[in-house]
Amino acid sequence: MSDLWSLLEPGSPADDLTAAVDGHPLVAQLLAQRGFTTPDAARAFLDPAAYTPASPTALLGVEHAAHLLKAAIDRKQRILVWGDFDVDGQTSTSLLVAALRRLAGDERVLFHVPNRFTESHGIRLEKLRAKLDDPSTRPDLILTCDTGITDGEAIGYAKDAGVAVVVTDHHDLPPDLQGLDPAVDAIWGGDAAEVGAASVRRADAIVNPKLQGPDDPLRSLPGVGVAFKLIQHLYTLCGLDGEEETLLDLVALGIVADVAEQVNDARYLLQLGLAQLRRTRRTGLLALMEIARVTPADLDAESIGFQIGPRMNALGRLDDATVAVELLTTRDPIRAGQLAGKMERLNQRRRVLTSQITAAALEMIERRPSLLDFNGLVLAHPAWHAGIVGIVASRLVEQFRKPTVLLLTPPGEPARGSARSIPGVDIGSAIAGCSRLLLSHGGHPGAAGLSLLPENIDRFRAELDLQIELHRAPETREPTGRGLIVDAELPWTGLNLALAEQVQRLAPFGNGNPTPQFLTSGLTVDEDRRLGRDGDHRRLLMSKDGVQFPVLWFNSRDAELRVPSGRGALDLVYTLGINTFRGERALQLNFVAGRATPATPTATRTEDRTQRVPAPGRACVLHDLRQTDLSATKLPTPIDAVWYAEGTRLDTAELPVSYAPRFAAAERGAGDLVIYTAPPSAALVRWLVAAVQPREVFLVAKLTCDDSLEGVLRAVGSMCKYALGRDGRLALDRMAARLGATEAVVRHSLLWLESRGQITVLDWSADNGVLIAAGDVNAARSAEDAALLQAQLSELLAEARAFRRYFRRAPLTELGFG
User: Fold this and answer.
1) What is the architecture, at CATH level 2, of domain 368-476?
2) Helices 743-755 and 732-739, interaxial angle, to 10°?
3) Taking the model in full, what pTM does it have?
């Protein structure tokens, strides 16, 4: 997460806008900041009943495509739906199959979802030829969804074989469609002589929102939205007006899980679709919700994005996405349960692989930091999994705030991979600008795929650096972007359930409509507790002006926030949510980011590499001794300084003073501070300065600890053995101090030992530590669980090693003392 926080200007919403939202100033401010400045625009955004959607026939090609489908149904012809393996493709295929089977019968509607590993995206000619050569699968009409717009060769082959083709897609247009007037029928349905034997223009109908004008409200529709508009008009032709509403649950699922932009008609369909999802009777969806622990009545965009979507994504990334279409169209509850269980198992495997590849990518960056000097981060590895690199690319985008490309380079094969981008950079166009170096490519502004010869990777990295700059939106020209966007600063005493309910009026949140983020400064952390069986989450009890609220920090086991209880001040960025438990609704604050409330002293550098920098509550002087070769006995420090040293036993010959690990630093009180060993995290540095409140800080930063995976697990195992011989209690801070590691490393080590049946964790909240008992090998978890924990632990150790090295060479102003 970037350290840069940008607070949006509150502005002054017009009185009529405020009145239109029942007089609530914060709702009016948020709407105005998002461009909804008139009452009519605000009402249409908040309430789908006030929005006027575009007619299905306003989407170019829908009229003709629907008539072709109706004619095929009337003639009892066989229709083959050709989809894609991502969630947009899965839901698009399911929607079309369910709707067409309603009209034509099960036996006349077939479908095919490509396998990511044997076919990749699109219509592979070999697979199409096999379908057409087999009398049991040969269709009279092929209908694509979320694919097909660049498959001119396959379309030409189908047409030459006498098969009609209707293309529905939302991806960028190929060259033979760019620059043509989409209102002219001649752009589709042409013969080979007119448009070329391998042209997509030979399709009988093409429906793609990219054919619309740049400001058209339909232009942002994802594949599932395009499919819905087509079926909506087809149902009208067949006298079934209104029945298409039962398909809106699939539309909502596809929009959220595929991170489609939630604006205009796409947002309208999502709002209606969420309502349909909450009352869905679709057998497979109910089974999936049950295994994901989602209550249908409480379902929202967040539960799709974090619980349902990842399970569906795991299919397309690791197995055969055909399973998803079967799940979403089956009426058999037993089969639905089996398929949902398979998706759950695959999702667990996805998590393991994601963690392993993320750790490897971070290790690459640690070894070669210059990779971050480019506008785009490009990494390659021969053993990465093709289905997972896109997920990891998204993680790296979040961490480093720049477009990222991850490539797998199997020996003797072309390199291939996935790209993800940041807002304001069209990665699809940027990669297209590198086409002279590529074998293939395709995508859209947020994500893309590509292949190239391995020997061209370095040249591609340099060319992409230039193309990103050319395809960056003007408002994001600053290399660091705008950092963390804060919508408004709120008083702590003004937070309540009613305010959260007002903010929720802007939901659903997602791409195109991000969750509002709020700031409150000067908070005190009164309590920090672990939540969840594995301590994955945190509950921070925070207060100001006599008012106290809990703040939930999800997936925070990898993060540290060290603010001494009752001391120091914290600025908090958070979101307002509503927790529904046993029918009771309550305010829920969700952690986004935190930092020490900054002080303002000026900084100046002196000749002797000493620098005055801001620290909490005062200015301190830093003495940079990191590159000196002084023994501990010759360091120019006061005799009564607090010495921070961890991860090693220091005898009196080396260090003839009392040293203080982190848990003892606050007890020593104010004084000067010697950071003798390199700390494992920036959070610990900030906490040490806040705890000691030094006048002077002496940086030595020796590398002393054994932070190898084997060494850490061996040391934690020894500490557990000692604790089991006494009362079974372990103090996390003391364990971390002995290792010179973060508490996250200790927690993951304990979880790994538990997964192997070597210990049993009885309580994670026992006096800032844990209570353990002897393990039971019969209660050991699966090998996949143990592998996941080991991969996560390796990642945490790599992060600590990287920070230690950074701490030893970075400029003083960047080391976390401010």
Assistant:
1) Roll (3.10)
2) 100
3) 0.70
